[in-house]
Amino acid sequence: xxxxxxxxxxxxxxxxxxxxxxxxxxxxPQGPTGPTGPTGPSTGATGATGPTGPTGATGPTGATGPTGAxxxxxxxxxxxxxGIQGATGATGPTGATGPTGATGATGATGPTGAxxxxxxxxxxxxxxxxxxxxxADITGTAPNxxxxxxxxxxxTGPTGAxxxxGATGPTGATGPTGAxxxxGTTGATGPTGPIGLTGATGPTGPTGDxGATGPTGPTGDTGATGPTGPTGPTGPTGDTGAIGPTGPTGATGPTGPTGP
Length: 260
Hints:
Blueprint: H1 10-19, E1 119-128, E2 135-141, E3 144-152
């Protein structure tokens, strides 16, 4: 280890001076200080980074901004072509026309009688079978006569339109429960008429082009930022880096001249 009399105990310096046959009382003025040795590294090695503290809790989500205005509607696509109309089904046979009711017979002209006015009273009125001839006969004794008629039943006319529903009348008193009638025999089911031919289905027209997409509406305002979550705890301090080595001691200056 180099000897430095400014820092080392006196025996070291005494040894130096003895070896040079110089005593303390004979030592000359101190020589100039030698140049300073190079400075050792000022910063020790960086300690390992402490573990990261836990992440703070996430703040609540800000309120959703208002919905942007709806963009304008895109242009309507071209309408597809109309499909070919299917063939018309065969027309069903026309029902037979019912016979026209016979014109009532004109009564015979009675003989010119006395000035007594005859009296005609409607006697019996009978319904004849459809298609038969209407008949009329007079009975009785003058001046009182009875006109008896037989009128054939006519063809059933079309059903009239349903009239408007009348106001609901007040509910009548509940009548006594009648005896259960005997269930009638179910009539035989009539034959089903032939089904008309179904017309061919026309081809489907081509699909029209899709309309252009309308522009996107403006973006809604950004919601307010939620409050910052609490700060996580500070991680532990890393270890102190090692102290750098001490720079070498500068060379000892030359010994000054011996005094008188």
